[in-house]
Amino acid sequence: PSTPAALLTGQVISRIERHGKQMALHGDDAAPVVCVHLGMTGSLCDAAANQAGDPHCHVTWHLNNDRVMVFRDPRRFGGIWTFADAAALHDQRWSQLGPDARRVTPSALHTRLQRTRRSLKAALLDQAVVAGLGNIYVDELLYVCRLRPDRQADTLVLKDVQGLVQRMKPLLRRAIKAGGSSTRDYVDGEGKQGSYQQSHRVYGRGHEPCLDCGQPLNSVSIAGRTTVYCETCQPV
């Protein structure tokens, strides 16, 4: 288990860094680093936004302004790791991740997709291929790109991947601006639900009419995840 010192006790958080779905809380220079992965429904939040004694609060920091910050993770898909310094974080953990989804270039993503014969959905969910995409946004992205989720990843040409990246970044920006998608019990650091689920074109809408062509949406399992797509708008 991590020691209080490794969890930044007595330190000032000097900066926050993010790569993909993970964030790092940095202390002063050469201080330990705390890496946080929120998982599906985790959050770093002010304890005022939570009920006292919440069993889902796994780590608590008492700040010098009398506020309390907690790591809350109802479904236990997230986690916290500590590292001696920033170099250790990058060498031991973030070096295993692919390029960040908001910064990846078409050529870099195309090269990585060419290395796998898995389905496109499975490849995009793999954080070692591209870091930052989850089940909801892969379904939404492939729909707007008119690409089948079960298509073999290495069959995409560079033009296909250019379209993916061109649509990926604004899709993520819109979702972030909306506070994410609260389809179950996800809330942000202030205890507020996101609203991007109101903009979902396919995710969570299996067997409902496609919003573009009216045909029933398919719902299948790919890479162990529920996947929704349109046979008509995302042809073979």
Could you explain the architecture of this structure?
With 236 residues, the protein is an alpha+beta fold. The protein is 22% helix and 19% strand. The chain has helices at 86-92, 106-113, 120-125, 135-145, 158-177; strands at residues 15-19, 22-26, 33-37, 43-46, 57-62, 68-72, 79-83, 218-222, 225-229. The protein has a 4-stranded antiparallel sheet with strand order 1-2-3-7. A 3-stranded antiparallel sheet has the order 4-6-5, with no helix packed on it. A hairpin with a 2-residue loop joins strand 1 (15-19) and strand 2 (22-26). Helix 2 (106-113) crosses helix 5. The longest helix is centred in the C-terminal third of the chain and has 20 residues, at 158-177. The mean pLDDT is 91.
Secondary-structure topology with pairs:
Elements: E1 15-19, E2 22-26, E3 33-37, E4 43-46, E5 57-62, E6 68-72, E7 79-83, H1 86-92, H2 106-113, H3 120-125, H4 135-145, H5 158-177, E8 218-222, E9 225-229
Antiparallel strand pairs: 1-2, 2-3, 3-7, 4-6, 5-6, 8-9
Give me some keywords for this one.
globular, 3-stranded antiparallel beta sheet, 5 helices, 236 residues, alpha+beta, 4-stranded antiparallel beta sheet
Question: What is the H/E string?
Answer: EEEEEEEHHHHHEE
Low-confidence stretches: none
Portion of residues in beta strands equals 15-25%
Q: What gyration radius follows from the Cα positions, in whole Å? A: 19 Å
SS-based class:
alpha+beta
Give the overall average pLDDT. 91
Distance between the termini: 49 Å
Instruction: Count the DSSP helices.
Output: 5
> How many individual β-strands?
9
